[in-house]
What does this fold into?
Amino acid sequence: MTAKTKKEYDVIIIGGGPAGLSAGIYTSRARLSSLLIERGALGGQITDAELVENYAGFAEGISGAELGQLMQQQAAKYGLNIVTAEVTSIELKGDKKAVKTTKGDFTAKAVIIASGSERSKLGTPGERELTGKGVSYCATCDGPFFKEKPVAVVGGGDVAITEALHLAKFSSKVILIHRRDRLRATRILEERARAEPRIKFLWNTVVEKIEGEDMVKRLNLRQVKTGKKSNLDVAGVFIATGFKPNTDYLKGFLPLDKAGFIITNDRMETKIPGVFAAGDIRLNSARQAITAAGDGATAAVNTEKFLAQ
Amino acid sequence: MSKPIEVSDASFAKQVLESKIPVLVDFWAPWCRPCLMAAPVLEELAKEYANKITFAKLDVDQNAQTAAKYNIMAIPNLIIFKEGKPASQIVGYKPKEELKRDLDAVLK
It folds into this structure.
């Protein structure tokens, strides 16, 4: 972006993951002047995925980073403007929506919110203090530091199983700790995890405390059914229990549900006219790259209709 | 120096610990995707903070000794060294604005 960045747009898209970039491809092709605001790196959470195997059209799978890059190239080809900045405040009511950012203030007639979600914290003692010292939220980033060492993964969904499978390539033992007695993960992932001898399961178990001074040493566990407490010596613990929507900046400006998700209808419209939402940030999102992309396209098509009114 | 320099186990003491100005060391590895995404941001910052902070990169696979010395268990991991000692540490991919806040704090 240059200094002469335009200030007024037809549509502003907040978030540069699959939802935001897909929305941008559609709005740019519709010849709506479009600005996408991303605070970090384009591509969103998908860039952490080593291999995306369920995005239709990529039969052999594709790395998340490459998929993100292709989406970005495709959007740029049709003239999507992109700025790297953080949204500091927002005004969504009325015909002219105002978005203030660390790189200047912008206005638009419509806004598509696609700022996604991030990993939830466990909230146990020791987690914050030992983050980066054995507590991790990204196995593809930190897995190789645990070569031939025992590690734990906390969670029971797709992300937890994917992380456990990745860690099994490096670590001597991967203990999957899940608070229920069965997994939430996709069956094919569960089958792979059960077939991997280095992965062990601890069911109905929660982590109460992460111990260690300079590095993670031990987990204090509790069996939820019996209440029995135990310790588990590990060098690392990967937290994959869930996600929290990135909607803090919207509080007070847009109705959110209790957990902070945005409620939309099937046209991706929020409660405020001209404000749409797409991807993980929506209540009951399927949390897949491909559904996020679909949401983005739907939001863009309906934005076009809204602006034509 | 307006571009990040490469440092190693062998050159760490001279290039980082004995530097007259603060040095930000980016502990990274080629298999770490967020590290690759952070690299262009650090290159931009290296220009903006030229002559105030030296930007350096250390490949943790090639230089395990230094990585182990500073207990690097997660990357991207940025440590800002001031007068030979870690003054600030940033773990994980962080947007540019947030990094600038940390850099400015170290320069104060």
In short: The mean pLDDT of chain A is 94. The interface with chain B takes residues 39-41, 43, 47-48, 63-65, 84-86, 102, 131-134, 136-138, 140-142, 144-146, 214-215, 236 of chain A (CB under 8 Å). The domain at 121-239 of chain A is CATH 3.50.50.60 (FAD/NAD(P)-binding domain).
